[in-house]
Design a protein that fits this description.
alpha/beta; five-stranded mixed sheet; 7 strands
Length: about 150
């Protein structure tokens, strides 16, 4: 599981992101059950104890995130401005179109289409308007693209 932000207050998540986090919670609870059973073994290893302690901490942190999560549908939206939770279609200089969903970092690991609000592409897209040409400063180098569409997921 990826590290969660240290201050999860006011996390805005998509409905799909909430489902993803709930699945992670379920998986972590199952893993914790397995580790609990392994702890009963008198010959358990130090690794089992450490894994159990990590899982307990991750579970508490994930529950805290879910308790503070605010659904994006409760946040007002301007359909012409790219915002957190939007599916954004961009056109690269070579004419190729790509679509991404801009999400909070806690839900970005869900799939390749979901990009963290902290990523260079999301930072370049946020608060820009449909039709704007933007420059993205990525670690691999800068590139330009045009925002073709922004819709709430």
């Amino acid at each position: 599981m990826n590290a969660l932000p240290s201050d999860p207050s006011g996390i805005q998540v998509t409905e799909a992101g909430r489902r993803l986090l709930m699945e992670q919670l379920h998986d972590l609870e199952e893993r914790l059950g397995q580790l609990s059973a392994e702890l009963e073994d008198p010959e358990r290893s130090v690794e089992v104890i450490e894994a159990y302690q990590r899982a307990v901490g991750e579970l508490a942190e994930l529950r805290g995130v879910l308790e503070r999560a605010v659904p994006l549908d409760e946040v007002p939206s301007d359909p012409q401005v790219v915002e957190l939770g939007d599916t954004v279609v961009i056109e690269l200089d070579d004419g190729v179109e790509e679509a991404y969903v801009i999400v909070h970092a806690v839900e970005a690991a869900g799939d390749e289409r979901r990009i963290s609000v902290e990523s260079p592409l999301a930072q370049a897209l946020l608060h820009r308007r449909v039709g704007d040409q933007i420059t993205v400063s990525a670690p691999s180098g800068s590139y330009r693209c045009t925002i073709r569409q922004a819709t709430r997921s």
